[in-house]
């Protein structure tokens, strides 16, 4: 996943950067930003750490803003990309079986758009451990993954997925064209929203794609975040929260247009955007339909985000109250899945090790460490299985079906799930 070296020049224009809501500018269109939600001091979502690192832990101010001009929702402050994506990046896409299937289907759909092509070439930005590109690698199709986090990129290479560890921009696009020629498809899954300098990516995509080439990417959808009060999608790595409205504006600045959109039932509700050079492909009626839905939902209006903030605060208060009640009743609560999202929830709600004994997670690199900011121990999944708690706080709510299906024994033993998206409730 990539973005420009440091904070965008656009935001640096602000003399009051980091000290207030005034003077911040939109990373896309440079209009003044309106801040609508301040989570306060926040560590990095994937900054799992050892005890001796507590003292030097990095924090920043997590705030979101809305651009009334281009409708882009975004972070008001960016963390340098090298702090987030490096040789010890803690997230591996292949940890979910359901997601592996989803990406195989995405790859098949993308492949289907190239049936008439001879020797097609596919590029994927933020290809992680190769979860999607391995489909093309196995089919013998020319492909290139771009993944700056060296440890996950290495896993992709071991599986035969051609991968380079770089951040993508127009300069890298020129190098790729020189070496491989232009691309038929440019893919991205849960990556574009991580890139503060999206203009550099858009310029790169524009020069890299053939005249009839397609950009297909998907990210968590702002409409779902707002409707489900899924505020934990907001953290350092997610610079943007896209709608069709804002994505259309961005690419229109680069002579490209959204030709289709497809809602996806992953990560709590995502949207897939299909984009081509302006005029190269017919625009589907689905685009207009979705734009109308967004207007009905008020995604173009600042008051929608003020209402969202109130619901977020209510959700935080209810969750904390529930956990405090459970502690008073002497019930053991354990977190399930040390997700990036859990960092926002635990820090914003003030969930400490007194309320949540540990967080169970299947990723070896997180185990034995502590959660960012709140320092809840992260333990291997076997610890959860060996001694079921009374309640599991489901930080991986976006994988609820997959997780609850495989944890039937926990529920059969009397265990309960505590969820907080779309509302705070105990299951069963
Ligand atoms: O955009 C991003 C999304 C797509 O993935 C990133 N910035 C980082 C990451 O976000 P996340 O960490 O919130 O992703 P997940 O997929 O909701 O959670 C993954 C974590 O959950 C891993 O640490 C593994 C853990 N997990 C588990 O312990 N047991 C996951 C599943 C499905 C399980 O059964």
Radius of gyration: 21 Å
Number of domains: 2
**What is the number of helices?**
15
Present as ligands are: ligand DWN
Architecture of the largest domain, CATH level 2?
Answer: 3-Layer(aba) Sandwich
Approximate shape: globular
Looking at CATH, the homologous superfamily of the largest domain is: Vaccinia Virus protein VP39
* Low confidence ranges: 1-22
How many distinct beta strands?
Answer: 17
Strand arrangement in the largest pleated sheet: 6-5-4-7-8-11-10
CATH topology of the largest domain: Rossmann fold
pLDDT average, as an integer? 93
Q: How would you sum up the major sheet?
A: 7 strands, mixed
What structural category do the secondary elements indicate?
alpha/beta
The percentage of residues in β strands lies in 15-25%
Percent helix, as a range, is 25-40%
From the N-terminal CA to the C-terminal CA, the straight-line distance is: 38 Å
The top-level CATH class of the largest domain is Alpha Beta
């Amino acid at each position: 996943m990539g973005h420009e070296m440091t904070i965008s020049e656009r935001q640096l224009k602000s003399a009051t950067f980091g000290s207030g809501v005034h003077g911040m500018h939109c990373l896309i269109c440079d209009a003044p930003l309106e801040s609508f939600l301040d989570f306060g001091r926040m560590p990095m979502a994937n900054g799992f750490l050892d005890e001796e690192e507590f003292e030097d832990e990095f924090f920043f101010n997590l705030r979101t803003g809305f651009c009334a001009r281009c409708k882009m929702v975004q972070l008001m402050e960016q963390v340098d990309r090298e702090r987030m994506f490096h040789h010890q990046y803690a997230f591996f896409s292949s940890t979910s079986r359901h997601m592996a299937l989803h990406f195989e289907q995405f790859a098949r759909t993308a492949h289907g758009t190239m049936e008439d092509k001879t020797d097609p070439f596919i590029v994927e930005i933020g290809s992680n451990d190769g979860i999607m590109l391995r489909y093309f690698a196995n089919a013998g199709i020319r492909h290139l993954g771009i993944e700056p986090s060296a440890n996950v990129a290495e896993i992709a290479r071991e599986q035969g997925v051609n991968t380079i560890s770089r951040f993508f921009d127009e300069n890298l696009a020129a190098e790729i064209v020189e070496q491989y020629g232009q691309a038929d498809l440019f893919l991205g899954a849960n990556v574009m929203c991580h890139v503060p300098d999206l203009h550099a990516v858009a310029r790169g995509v524009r020069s890299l794609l053939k005249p009839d080439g397609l950009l297909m990417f998907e990210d968590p959808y702002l409409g779902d975040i707002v409707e489900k009060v899924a505020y934990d999608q907001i953290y350092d790595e997610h610079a943007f929260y896209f709608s069709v409205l804002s994505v259309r504006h961005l690419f229109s600045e680069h002579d490209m247009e959204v030709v289709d959109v497809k809602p996806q039932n992953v990560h709590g509700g995502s949207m897939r955007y299909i984009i081509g050079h302006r005029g190269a492909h017919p625009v589907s009626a689905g685009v207009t339909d979705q734009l109308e839905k967004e207007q009905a939902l008020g995604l173009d209006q600042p008051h929608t985000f003020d209402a969202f903030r109130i619901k977020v605060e209510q959700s935080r208060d209810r969750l904390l109250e529930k956990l405090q009640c459970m502690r008073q009743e002497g019930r053991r609560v354990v977190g399930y899945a040390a997700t990036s999202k859990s960092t926002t929830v635990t820090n914003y709600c003030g969930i400490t090790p007194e309320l949540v004994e540990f967080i169970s997670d299947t990723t070896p690199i997180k185990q034995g460490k502590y959660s960012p900011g709140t320092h809840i121990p992260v333990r291997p999944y076997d610890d959860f299985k060996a001694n079921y708690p009374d309640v599991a706080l489901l930080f991986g709510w976006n994988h609820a079906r997959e997780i609850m299906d495989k944890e039937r024994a926990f529920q059969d033993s009397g265990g309960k799930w505590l969820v907080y998206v779309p509302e705070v409730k105990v299951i069963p």
